[in-house]
Amino acid sequence: MNDDLSIKGASSSTRPPRASGAGRRARSLHKNHGPILALLDKLTGDDGEATLGRLMQQPECIDSLAAEIASGASIERIRKRALTLDTMISELVEADFAYVGLPKEARDCDFRTGFETYLRPVLGKRAQGFAAIFERLDRHTRPFIVETGSLRIPDNWEGDGQSTFQFDWYARTRHGSVFTIDINPASIDSARRACSGTTSTILNDSVAALHALGSVAGRPAALIYLDSFDLDLENPVPSAVHHAMEVMAARRLIGEGTIICVDDFDVPPLGQGGKGLIVDQFMSSIGAEVVYSGYQKVWQLSG
Fold first, then answer.
1. Which among 244, 135, 228 is positioned nearest to 180, based on CA atoms?
2. What angle, rounded to 10 degrees, do the helices at 21-32 and 34-44 form?
């Protein structure tokens, strides 16, 4: 009996071990889902098998799993490669009128005709303010325009004013230049897509960027348009303080004839002040000329 047992034992020891359940599942995944696993490996950094396994075990978690993959480093690398591959441009960058909702006929207009025909009718509460700004800008040759708070949502004329596109169009016809500053990369992307090579974008905090730009510009700006930190109607002070800091940071860009505008000044139901609450008091104290006061407030510095 002992011999029988030993023979049976020897026989069983020579058999190949059965694959574990996990091993069988892995082979099944590779056999049936090979291309899917290869794709998931690309998207997850060689973690495709585990990702597919999680999805098969918990199909109800597809949204959270998709969000996890989308925020991963592998997706960021793939996206950057796609966005930066073969992007050499051999000609001047042109403004994209269609991107901001303007008809192709607008492209052939001079700025003044375009403003009266296509822009003023859609600017709503900002129409008079922009008209006043451009009337004063006509007194400057080769206008140098600096803006904080870039175009963020294309074709949102009444909501945002699309000031970056307006300044780009104006400066292009007057042989000027525009610098627009925003801390949000999505807004910078919108401005770059909308505007021509006349406009340079700066992705940075506006206070730091204005200070740096003032150090290298070498001349005062014709216009400084302040529209960065969003206004909270329940607590307007943080926005007002930020815009006052912008004026201080831009001191080297301010000279005789410089136009300064703060957006969101007279905003119902808050009333006058808004983003320009502190700037308005400062401008009054130095005797700056009030060019326009409404939803925007516009001043011009005398010599």
1. 228
2. 100
Contact (CB, 8 A) for 240 and 275? yes
Dihedral class, residue 174 (left if φ above 0, else alpha if ψ from -120 to 50, else beta): alpha
228-265: string of b/e by CB count within 10 Å (b at 16+)? bbebeeeebeebbebbbbbbebbebbbeebbbbbbbbb
The angle, 0 to 180 degrees and rounded to 10, between the axes of the packed helices 185-194 and 163-173 is: 40
- Among residues 251, 248, 299, 296, the alpha carbon closest in space to that of 273 is found at 296
Convert the pLDDT of each residue in 213-267 to its tens digit.
999 999 999 999 999 999 999 999 999 999 999 999 999 999 999 999 999 999 9
Q: Which pLDDT tens digit goes with each residue over 139-171?
A: 999 999 999 999 999 999 999 999 999 999 999
Residue with tokens 């974008």: 201
Q: Which of 264, 119, 144, 273 is nearest to 199 (CA)?
A: 144
* 218 Cβ contact partners less than 8 Å away, ≥ 6 residues apart: none
Amino acid of residue 262: V
**Beta-strand runs (E) in 194-288:** 199-203, 223-226, 259-262, 266-267, 271-272
What is residue 10's DSSP assignment?
H
pLDDT at 6: 42
Whole-angstrom distance, CA of residue 34 vs CA of residue 36: 5
Q: Could you say which DSSP state residue 90 is in?
A: -
Q: Which of 151, 152, 165 is nearest to 118 (CA)?
A: 165
- Dist. CA 213–CA 216, nearest whole Å: 5
